[in-house]
Amino acid sequence: MENLQDKPTAKEDSLTKSLAVPMQRRMFMRYAGATAAVTTLLFATSCDDDDDSPTDPMAVDLGSGDTGILNYAYALEQLEAAFYAEVVAKSLSMFSQAEQQIMQDIKGHEGIHRDFLKAALGTSAIPNLEVNFSAINFNDKNSILTTARTFEDLGVAAYNGAGKLLENAGFLTLAGKIVSVEARHAAVIRDLISNGTFSDSANEKGLDPAMAPADVLAAAAPFIKTKITANNLPK
Amino acid sequence: MNIFRIIEDIEKVDPEVYNKLDSRRNAFKYMSSVGKKAALAAIPLALGSVFQKAYGQSNSTILEVLNFALKLEYLERNFYTQGLAANGLIPAGAARTAIQKIQVHEAEHVKLLIATIQSLNGTPISEPTFNFGKNFADWNTNYQTFLTLAQAFEDTGVRAYKGQAGNLISNDAVLTAALQIHSVEARHAAHIRRMRNNAGWIVGAGANSNVPAGAQPVYAGEDNVAQGGINDVKTVGAGYSAEIATGAFDEPLTKEQVAQIVSLFE
């Protein structure tokens, strides 16, 4: 396992693979694998499982269990990373020097979230999603910032809602490491739109939203061309 | 053996069994966490552990976390309340509005935590006496010192909640509420950081956070690049800088680390 990781890699995508192999074994066997085996046995003997929903051959299914939740996060990070990559490629000159740095930083953060989750999921990762940004005007600063706010607030609500669906405490902490950075992004973007609105997402109890995957995916659907099914995610 | 039959039987005697397990799903959670170590043959043992958690130890762990969070929220509420009351400390306008908004959130968090602790039949700790001037004498006369401490408290809060998430995994409602507070603290942190002309996110172990040496424990370990079994997260995809790699992940603090930070103000 360690040798595999150290082996020099010729192609770029084999780098991902070499990372994915130890990840696969280490994370999913140690954390999820053994757990899944026991749970499966319990289900098989005693539970009326209603998970088998009809499958659309064209759709990308996120999967089940913790892997499904991580794929769900990976899908959202793909969306955000693609968006900021486009902003930096097309729209940077519209922003002040300080704002450009913010956009570059967020592009980097979303990019590494995406690539990290892909590596962590290894062969369980869903494929690359095709995005649809036709509703966004990349020549209009306001359109960019309001879309950014939508994505960041949605990301925060998604991670907040997904925490309880994770079985493994290690994955929960990982999600926690990412969600607070999404919240920082959301606050900064909100302040760029209107200074002082950084936490106006919160309700009167001072709590940010927590959304279920189905609601998050419905909100994200207009921006994702690839059909995603999430029927097997934990509820 | 059918675990659900057993639980259903218990339900006849104790109708609240599901509340104590939180949910059917959590029964799995408990079972499977034990299942990691135990063979299937050991399920009766695992079952015992399910009920031990439901009827014993798990509630006390959760209450401990909630009281730990309550102490931090008391600290924040107290700090902002005193700061807002200090004559001429916080400039009128955007700055004051922001601090007021944050103070209201912290006060709400205090209320919510107290109510949650009581609903779990626990006893909320009473508000400790804080001494913000202990190591920062001009905290309520020098606006920059005040903002520095505000940043330190918010970033500590984010890291403290994150460190306890795993201890709340058995209670969905409490975990979700904690996460909903956690992200609000991160929003506060980002805003305060920018009020001080810092980036909204933490790069390295305090490299971009502009805090005095005494406050460095707040950022200890934020330079970590090992994530989820990947030894160096800078190497994923086409590769990333250390600034991006450390900025993209906030790191947890342990209870002990948080206690050490809080002790600077007690």
Largest sheet of chain B: none
What is the string of SSEs of chain A from the N terminus onward?
HHEHHHHHE
Give the CA-based shape of chain A. globular
Provide the number of structural domains of chain A.
1
Structural class of chain B: mainly alpha
Strand order of the largest sheet of chain A: 1-2
The Rg value of chain A, from CA coordinates, equals 19 Å
CATH topology of the largest domain in chain B: Ferritin
What is the rounded distance between the termini of chain A? 34 Å
Number of helices of chain B: 10
User: Taking Cα atoms only, what radius of gyration of chain B do you get, to the nearest Å?
Assistant: 22 Å
CATH architecture assignment of the largest domain in chain B: Up-down Bundle
Class derived from helix and strand content of chain A: mainly alpha
> How many strands appear in the DSSP assignment of chain A?
2
**Helical element count of chain A?**
7
Residue-averaged pLDDT of chain A: 83
> Quick one: CATH superfamily of the largest domain in chain B?
Ferritin, core subunit, four-helix bundle
- Share of helix of chain A, binned: 55-70%
Q: DSSP strand (E) fraction of chain B? A: under 5%
Shape of chain B: globular
Largest sheet of chain A: 2 strands, parallel
Organism (chain B): Pontibacter aquaedesilientis
Protein name (chain B): Ferritin-like domain-containing protein
InterPro entries (chain B): Ferritin-like (IPR012347), Ferritin-like_SF (IPR009078)
